[in-house]
Amino acid sequence: MAGSDLIRPPGSAEDWTVPQDWASYTPDEHAMWDTLFARQAEMLPSRVVPAFMDGLDILRMSRPGIPDFDELSDRLMKATGWQVVAVPGLVPDEVFFDHLANRRFVAGRFIRTPEQIDYLQEPDIFHDVFGHVPLLAHPVFADYMQAYGEGGLRAAKLGMIKQLARLYWYTVEFGLIRDGDALKLYGAGIVSSFGESRFALDDPSPNRIGFDLQRVMRTDYRIDDYQQTYFVIDSFEDLLRQTLETDFAPIYASLADATDLKTDDVLADDVVFTHGTQAYAHSRLESAA
Ligand SMILES: [Fe+2]
């Protein structure tokens, strides 16, 4: 995860990484990983893109306990040339992009407490590693993540990080993918969440709209609750191809003058899989009022 105006914590390296210090995890922390893992592993097989389950196998992630990043990186390096490195928390955008561009995924070290089992504000190791790392063993998705990092470094120079961050959000974090006539999950924010793994596919509330690069980069997103819109890609190959073949500079130029789209907008030329009722989002607004 990336942010701005951050100060590098003492003890971290120039590139903001720190040792994972795997030996310091307590039995309770390993048990929390196992609880979260068992819950998702039971629910996901029929819901998630098959490449995710393949990644869990390739990386031997079903072994009990919090994964050791060195072992995980050895397996990942053999599969796709990626590594997992630990960081103490949020890192600056350009540090984050530079790691991705060099096929390094930055992950938090801490794990949520039992009180935070269903909601926490900052991503923990379960989100970062269970959610993100299995798909890094898929060669095409792995290339997409690198391409995103390279695009991020260019966007930073053009002052367009906000727009590019929406691409990450609506694909890497909250993306859906077509599987024949069905939809499947692949975004890490969904697959690491017990509630959103069901909501994103089954609930009539959110919109599910065909992926369009420029449309996505105009669309605001929710950071405080389930998404009001999910975007559906055809395949990882198509997502990578669009990202590599698109010249982002003219898109950024047109986006600079365009109004942002709201989190629940549906446009006349959207490819609509579900026009959501937004009943969930409205009920949350009412209960907060
Ligand atoms: Fe994430």
From TrEMBL:
Species this protein is from: Sphingomonas colocasiae
Pfam families, alphabetized: Biopterin_H (PF00351)
Lineage: Bacteria, Pseudomonadati, Pseudomonadota, Alphaproteobacteria, Sphingomonadales
InterPro entries: ArAA_hydroxylase (IPR001273), ArAA_hydroxylase_Fe/CU_BS (IPR018301), ArAA_hydroxylase_sf (IPR036951), Aro-AA_hydroxylase_C_sf (IPR036329), Aromatic-AA_hydroxylase_C (IPR019774), Phe-4-hydroxylase_mono (IPR005960)
UniProt GO MF annotations: phenylalanine 4-monooxygenase activity
Keyword Translocase included in the entry's annotation: no
CDD domains: pro_PheOH
Name of the protein this chain belongs to: Phenylalanine-4-hydroxylase
Residue ranges annotated for the Biopterin-dependent aromatic amino acid hydroxylase family profile domain, each copy included: 1-289
Cofactor list: Fe(2+)
